[in-house]
Amino acid sequence: MALLCALLAVVGMGGYLCIFVALHLLPTGYHPVRHAVSDYGVGRYARLFRWALVLSSAGILALAAGLGFEPGTPTVTVLQLVFLFLIPVTRVGMLKFPTDLEGQRLTNSGRLHYAFAVAAFALTYSAIAGLTPELEPVGAWEPVGGFLSVLRMIALVSLVLLVIALVPRLRKVFGLFERGFLLSTNLWFLTVGICLLVEAA
Known about the structure:
Elements: H1 2-25, H2 46-69, H3 78-96, H4 108-135, H5 145-164, H6 174-200
């Protein structure tokens, strides 16, 4: 079971990252520094954005299940698993309530989208911060322990900077820091999934 979960986690996270890159290569009309990633959910490429969130959410669910099933992993606390399992719940909210584009009037849908996005970011970092020191010295994760720590630090710095960039005068660089957070956290999930695959094989 752990092997299947690990495989699904790698496919899900890998698929997310492929679509993430594609959205930045396609003529979306959005700027990677100025625009939030959620803006891709509004417009002609909204379907790709939705698929990215679905794949990432499925990958995180599979990873959480795999970490719980695999006896070779360190003790994963109930709280850490709860964080992981709740991330896809917030993604459902983000998909159900599209964001408002920069400069548009803030709607109820936009407010709810922001609330779910904040929850998703907080849960994501909380899970990574708790799991990294547990995974670093164990089994297949030991060789990449330093890399996981670097990704965790990048995620933390990016999260702090994107919160600072919510200040109106700094909004023009919000997208840059958000992308730093999303790339570092999803690479963290992908790396852990690959290690779980090795451990379970």
